[in-house]
Amino acid sequence: MSDGALEATERQFLSLLNSASDGLSIQLSLYSLPNIPRNEFGASHVIRHYSSVEDLWNTQLDGLIVTGREPLTPNLEDEAYWKSFTKVLDWARENTYSTIWSCLAAHAATQYLDGISRIRNGNKRCGVFECARLSDHPLIADTPSSFMLPHSRWNGLPEDELMRCGYRVLTRSADAGVDTFIKHCRSMFVFFQGHPEYEYNTLLLEYRRDVTRYLKGETNVHPLIPRGYFDSDTVAALTILQEEAISSRREDLVIELSGILENINIESTWHATAVRIFGNWLRYICAQKKRRSAGKATVETQGVDALMPQL
What we know:
By secondary structure, the chain is an alpha/beta fold. It has 10 helices and 9 strands.
């Protein structure tokens, strides 16, 4: 994660795992890749709370969650941490029951595994999008046939290439594309292009950050208002401010932006579904751990779904 998102991302995943645990005992350990530029706060936080990824190789973990951060290079393979990232992926394939690859990590993982390149969109796909359930896979058991999930990304993965390379798409948004997909590599790899872990105000904070960057001249494109997220009155006020900012970019408009965004009510319409998906993921790990400890160490890829507990 970026320095500014460290604490928030930790809190989001920990809260979601706690909500999804349903009595299961979870021990969470934090690891950091090397060669990631950090400011003073970020470097201090990582030193105090994270273990080196080198400690991972001799550690026994049941599951792993790998998050992403804004890339510094056009090609992910040119990122300073790429070699360490691919080593983590190879390790996770053989040493976890399941690993989640979140957002940018999903893009990096599919690029390394199968050479699938992400495609940049004309605008950032940001908002809460309706996703359709395409499968009866147990990972999404007991979720509605359609549900809302946040997305916040410039890039996406082509569904036809994913399917050609053996990935199984579980959920898709008509407006945001592929949402959740999986691939069995001994470990079950779960890929999220969206952000089920987001808190109710995460998209708000990201939008304020992106608009502020535009008003300060740090970017040349004014961000789109997140879809399906703000109430109609807030959208109207933000639209007027956007038009003013584009016609006359001024840093003092940040004050007006903050005034619009403060004290508005946002409902986390995706939280219940996110809890269900992560609960299913935890139960999958428990089921696989039991079976392998009972001597069934090898699970045929085509039989994994049948070995899931019925929820």
